[in-house]
Amino acid sequence: VTVASGVFERAAAVASDLNAQLIATAATRPGSCLEIGAGRGTKTYVMMCQAKRAGYERLHTALDLHDRKCDLNLARLHKAGDACELDEVLTSFDAMLGEPVKFDTVFIDAPCSGTGTMRRHPEIPWRLTEKDVTVELPKLQLSMLKEAAARVAAGGELIYATCSVFDEENAQVVDAFLASPEGAGFTVAPLSEAQILQLPEFAQAKKLVSVRQNDRGLFQSVPVNADSYDGHFCARLVHK
Prior knowledge:
alpha/beta, eight-stranded mixed sheet, 9 helices
């Protein structure tokens, strides 16, 4: 019935997993945002709707490697380019400002194994190799974090998210980043303490985030059965 109503074609609604919505909501902050790995814009849509609900003034720039996905994205500003080469991608922005542009929020929805979505994509285990999870993907993810760090304004936040259940792509990548020169100015902050989640209308979202984060404040959900939601990871890194 929902599909037949045409709401998806009119961009009046998007289909999004609950845990993906929680992460996108927690990443929504006032000011400027650079969303890296925006894809077709599902999280972009959620962030824009939640910003309107919270009364936030925002300028959202969505970046993806593929032109076609950028064309489908709902963000007013979108660009195609390599997130490991942000100086090249953001050349026009830097030229307008006269210096490297920095954002209040940089949200990385990183390429990953997708293992948190295996209940919907049973082919994933058949196309993954051990090297993908332990070497290739973490290497790319860490490179993206290091590159993005230089674009976070003082007092800003760097949000790192995956739909993986593997520690090698999640906490280990975050720890490697924090131990690097690029990550020296950042510290982990609980996702449940995100600014938007302190608003009364987001109290239920805060509760759901709180039960999915560990003692460090890192968010991790795991699909335990066929009826559960997807597995997602998120780290909130605050620029000191």
